């Protein structure tokens, strides 16, 4: 519950409150919501985002007795209005309070980066979950895990949830016995103040490259970088991949707000970093194939050596580009007091739904389903797979989302030109855009003297075409959606079987014809 007095005190403390309208200074709110379809008696309702007056009418009729808004909404003495300067910040503050500050009962790991967030989060969660007796929750792009039962795991709607959902999920996790939480923190989470006033025990910065700049995302790359850097500023211990682009910016942001003994830098052995800094950890690849991935981690400084993490680690997900993610997870776990021995089994068996899923066809080569959705991740994936099948073709099925990340289209075209032999351009969450126009935008950046390009906007048919084209030595890569069970079209989530399901169904049908 939240009382009017508590709300006023919190909002004033953060200099957000402009005015309180209404006469009931003793009001108590027993529910909170920003969705007019989810309102109960005595609900504190947040007028956020693309708010419309009709939503308020619905909310009041359903039982809303308090509003948090940036603009006064209605002159009703029985309705308490809290007029604020920033409703998103206010919602984060009040949601944390309503759910009794669950972050204080969890040890929080936060991970940001243009690519690798989900992989790192899964590595870390799987590495420590057994050692915590199953008491590690997960908020990721793929799934949310709030407890030990099957119903506690469900598909995530956002990489980092809206603040109200975030703290609600934290409270649920605590109530179900969770004591650790591994979460991805997107740049949008800071842009939209979803994690306003939230501090993390451990924060990781993996990398940054151009992405998420567009009409519904960041206005500029500088803004994108600024939002990413907020995670290191708001974390007590910070782990940074020193091989990231813009390392100087990220490093100095962390250094300004982090005690030297709580700041850890790592990179692959032999990496030339932007700044001449002392690395705390380096690692080498010991094996790197589709079936065997092993690294060796070395500590180079006293405070790194104190963690006792040196040695070999088997990694459950292939690809040299995943080794950096595993190292980040290992260091974070070590900072939280976990031993190398405790981490070995979980790292070796980590799997991620919709990431590097492998399907073998005797006649059509090997098919991979992966969520890669920008230049950096697509290039890294294709480059690795191509190295594993040098005598065959690399066939890629790819689209790009509508109304966001416009620069991804050029990135896809560039990655395909550099690493693919055949590209089949298709539909991937087109939103309110024409998927054909999106495909053509990608195609403008593909070098046709190197890559054969086909258009097939029906995604299932595109996957089928790719598999039928494949020969035994070929690699077929289905990019972008992984196990997403919908296509976002004109504001509606249309059911979609998932790339993984379609691939399996096509292979089963093919096997049945043999």
TrEMBL record:
Pfam entry (one): Mur_ligase_C
Pathway recorded for this protein: Cell wall biogenesis; peptidoglycan biosynthesis
Keyword set, alphabetical order: Cell cycle, Cell division, Cell shape, Cell wall biogenesis/degradation, Ligase, Peptidoglycan synthesis
The Mur ligase C-terminal domain, residue ranges: 354-482
Keyword NAD: no
Stretches assigned to the Mur ligase central domain: 111-331
Domain of life, source organism: Bacteria
Enzyme class per UniProt: ligase
Major subcellular location class: cytoplasm
The keyword Cell wall biogenesis/degradation is annotated on this UniProt entry: yes
Record GO terms (molecular function): UDP-N-acetylmuramoylalanyl-D-glutamate-2,6-diaminopimelate ligase activity
Family note: Belongs to the MurCDEF family. MurE subfamily.
Protein name: UDP-N-acetylmuramoyl-L-alanyl-D-glutamate--2, 6-diaminopimelate ligase
């Amino acid at each position: 519950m939240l009382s009017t007095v508590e709300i006023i005190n919190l909002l004033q403390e953060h200099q957000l409150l402009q005015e309180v309208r209404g006469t009931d200074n003793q009001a108590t709110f027993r529910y909170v919501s920003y969705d007019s379809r989810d309102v109960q008696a005595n609900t504190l309702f947040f007028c956020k985002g693309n708010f419309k007056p009709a939503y308020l009418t619905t909310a009041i009729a359903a039982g809303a007795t308090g509003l948090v808004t940036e603009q006064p909404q209605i002159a009703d003495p029985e309705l308490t209005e809290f007029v604020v300067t920033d409703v998103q910040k206010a919602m984060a503050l009040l949601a944390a309070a309503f759910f009794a500050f669950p972050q204080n009962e969890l040890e929080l790991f936060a991970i940001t980066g243009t690519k690798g967030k989900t992989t790192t989060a899964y590595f870390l969660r799987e590495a420590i979950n057994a050692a915590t007796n199953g008491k590690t929750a997960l908020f990721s792009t793929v799934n949310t895990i709030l407890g030990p039962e099957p119903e506690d795991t469900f598909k995530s709607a956002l990489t980092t949830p809206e603040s109200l959902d975030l703290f609600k999920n934290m409270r649920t996790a605590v109530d179900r016995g969770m004591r650790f939480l591994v979460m991805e923190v997107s740049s949008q989470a800071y842009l939209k103040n979803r994690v306003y006033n939230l501090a993390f025990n451990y924060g990781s910065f993996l990398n940054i490259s151009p992405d998420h700049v567009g009409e519904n995302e960041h206005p500029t790359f500088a803004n994108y970088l600024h939002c990413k850097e907020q995670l290191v500023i708001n974390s007590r211990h910070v782990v940074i991949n020193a091989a990231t682009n813009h390392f100087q910016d990220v490093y100095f942001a962390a250094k300004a707000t982090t005690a030297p003994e709580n700041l850890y830098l790592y990179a692959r052995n032999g990496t030339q970093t932007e700044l001449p800094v002392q690395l705390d950890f380096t690692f080498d690849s010991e094996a790197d194939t589709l079936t065997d991935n092993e690294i060796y981690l070395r500590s180079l400084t006293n405070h790194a050596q104190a963690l006792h993490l040196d040695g070999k680690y088997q990694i459950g997900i292939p690809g040299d580009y995943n080794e950096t993610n595993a190292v980040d997870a290992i260091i974070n776990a070590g900072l939280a007091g976990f031993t190398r021995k405790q981490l070995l089994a979980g790292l070796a068996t980590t799997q991620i739904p919709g990431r590097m899923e492998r399907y073998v066809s005797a006649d059509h080569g090997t098919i991979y389903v992966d969520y890669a959705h920008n230049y950096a991740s697509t290039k890294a994936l294709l480059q690795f797979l191509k190295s594993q099948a040098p005598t065959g073709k690399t066939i890629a099925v790819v689209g790009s989302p509508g109304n966001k990340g416009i620069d991804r289209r050029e990135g896809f075209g560039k990655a395909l030109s550099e690493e693919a032999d055949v590209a089949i351009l298709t539909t991937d969450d087109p939103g309110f855009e024409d998927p054909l126009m999106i495909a053509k935008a990608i195609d403008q950046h593909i070098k046709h003297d190197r890559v054969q390009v086909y258009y097939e906007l029906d995604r299932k048919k595109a996957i089928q075409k790719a598999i039928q084209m494949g020969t035994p030595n070929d690699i077929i890569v289905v990019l972008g959606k992984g196990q997403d069970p919908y296509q976002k079209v004109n504001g509606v989530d249309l059911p979609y079987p998932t790339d993984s399901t379609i691939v399996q169904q096509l292979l089963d049908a093919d096997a049945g014809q043999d």
